[in-house]
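Sample 1 of the test manifest.
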Amino acid sequence: MTTFDLGSVQLGSTMPRALAPGKDISDRIFHGSARTVGFFVLVITGAIGVFLCYQAVPTLRHYGLHFFTQTRWEPQLGKIGIAAVLVGTVEVALVAMAVGFPLAIGFALFITEYAPKQIKSWLVSLIDLMAAVPSIIYGLWGFFLLQPRAIEISRWFSQHLGWIPIFHVDTNPNAAVWQQSAYTSSAFIAGLAVSMMTIPLACAVMRAVFDQAPIGEREAAMALGGTRFSVIRTVVLPFAKGGVIGGTMLALGRALGETAAVLVIISPEYLIKARILEAGTQTVSALIAGNFGDASKSQISALLAAGFVLFLITLLVNTVAATVIRRSRSGASTEI
Amino acid sequence: MTTTQTLDQDRARPPATGGARASGPARPTAAVGPRKIRRTPAFGVDDWLSLGGAVVAAYALVEVGYNHIFDFSGLFGFGICWYLVFLAVYAGVVAAAHPRTMVVERLVSATLYLVAAAVMFALGTTVVYIFTQGYHAYIHIGFFTHDMAGVSPTAPLTQGGILHAIIGTVIEVGIAVVVSVPLGIGTAVYMTEVGGRGSQLVRTVVESMTALPEILAGLFVYAMLIVGLGMPKSGLAVSIAMAVTMVPIIARAGEVALRVVPGGLREAASALGSNHWRTVVKVVLPSARAGLATATILAVARGVGETAIPLITSGASSFKTLNPVGEPMNSLPLFIYTAYTTHEPAAITRGFGAASVLLAMVLALFVVIRLLVRHRGVQR
């Protein structure tokens, strides 16, 4: 189009003009293919659910509700149930959260509020690095380095707080030569190793949200004579409530599904028990990974059913987390 | 910190009425003479002294009380008691010179520094421990140039190596990257640039898939491809499962990278007559290049270390293979896990050697990310 065309528009014309929504053919292809890719990813997630569900049906039909109430996992005897395994999964995840949550929120606050400016970006990279260290490495660390030291902690708890059921261990903690094997391979130690993976995940989300706390309100709190902690209490934490909850739930989702580290540390035991310091527990993912090798066709279906339950739980937790985080987010794009 | 000159001035003047909030000796506000840049330390000498004093005092108290009076034992309990007593002593010391808000501030900051130190200590011990334990394996050149074909797990460390596992990991991750980068970046573009009704749903699903347990991705591929379609256990199966976990990571980090591209750049491109497709390809994606690369590397770092996936879908070969289709393939995480399950000292050391290589790979990826972030000033 040249400028001469403009001259041909009659001056004084008040007739409305048709505006073409400028979508040429290449844009249509572009939008269409981007949408296709986006929905393809949706379909994959759906496919995971559908396939696990489809494969789990024979087991669920055969065992019915007993699948959820039976504690034993003895396919040879026809006894298959995930009651104890689910309890173990939740226990390991809760230990990981109990240890990881204070550390994650503390480290995130340290990075945004307390750390010197120069090292801040290094600390952010450190968190990313911590998240990327393979879980099998945390498993080795947990088994060989942490466990011999962590059983001292277990013993201390059972010595002094043994009257609380969860800290009780069925052995004499005060014996001169104490039975160390009663404390190893427990849900507690597995939870400690898993917390190494949940800390960076939760911390990264929390840090990002803390950083978005409005600078004006921070300065206002400072100008009113506040300390760094009062800024955190009155500005940062109220602003970032959604991010803290969402980050914690994302970490919980990760903790529920963690495989390699748990598999290395725990010794399998199919028993519903609250004694987290005592040797032996089992989680869904470790159950799947541990029993896959020598499973028959029907046992594989049982494992897939267990996987389907884990899928539903983590999907629920993660979706709630994602929704909570998104609600707390501001600004769709950055302007110049 | 303070020069002798300002100290002299301090003595010459009557003490300023700084109030309880001023920390350190009160200084004259407008000194006569040549102007100097004054430093106003938030944490002065006396603050350091009260902190150090509280640490030492708490140690001494616990040392006496813990073992001798209360008959506790164990290093962990000692640490807990030391920390609690320290908080009490420190609160007392700070309260002597400062108001209550300042006491709370000091206690919180002491706690946060301790938390940061604890997290960094845990990560530091992990890295150092793996590298020191693997030392006896990876000092042998053969460790990198041989595979484990015909070598028993109990064989001395001079025999055998992890070449097959390194090659397997590289091939598997390579295929996974080729599959997941277009899908991940395409999804990110859909979420930020195209949008529309479905984009919220896709975003929610992508975010919840970021934390999808790897074992479920492995199970999915196992159920669909290996059981369902009769595909053999192979490197390709691992790659597909790995891609399933990597796509959401790339999409999510990529979305953040695309979102920080200034909206003005898009508008400028439109104003110059560019259509949407050319705007995205010529303006948006190049501006977010470093961020997208970082997203990819984050995903690779995650994919490299996935253990449960190869455990289910690849089968472990002990020999070198370049064929990802049709035959079993080993990889570093799988090698580490199988070495651990043998409970043989030599095999475990070899496992630590492989873990060192794996960790070195992850560290190298992070050095690359740091360089990208520094040169491009990417916000993440």
